[in-house]
Design goal:
mainly alpha
Amino acid sequence: MTALIIYYAALLISIPLYYKKIRKIRQPFSRWGSYKDNVSFGERMCISFFIMIPVFIKYFVL
């Protein structure tokens, strides 16, 4: 359970840093964590998939 919390904390820090430093484009999230209107469906699916990886590992693999 602790590893799951650490993964989510690292993920929620790394996604905004990825958009700010590497891609140098707009942030996909609003101030409260919801998606902005100009984020494409594919981008939403990709980010959601990365967020769901630890849940898949915890409940389906382990």
